[in-house]
User: What shape does this take?
Amino acid sequence: KVDSQARLADSTFGVVYPPGLYAERVNGSVIVEFVVDAEGKVEEGTLGIVASSNPLFSEAVVRAVEGALFTPARLKGVSVRQLILQPFSFDVGPARTGG
Assistant: This one.
């Protein structure tokens, strides 16, 4: 167990909603797991899809997470690796009506 969890450090982080799915008003979700290393980077080869409602959502999440920067987890004042299980939701929201 760590003293502080790894957390997203990049305020510009964002997952791009796949345009075709957005246009068709498709909602969905993805759960990924990965290791954040002691430098705050996603450790190569650790990013995996745990569950996904659509492969296009999976691709969007993988692209975003691979380049993300994190504040690493800490244990007794030292930066350490941590396994992260992270859900992502895609929701286009309610349909808009004319007006």
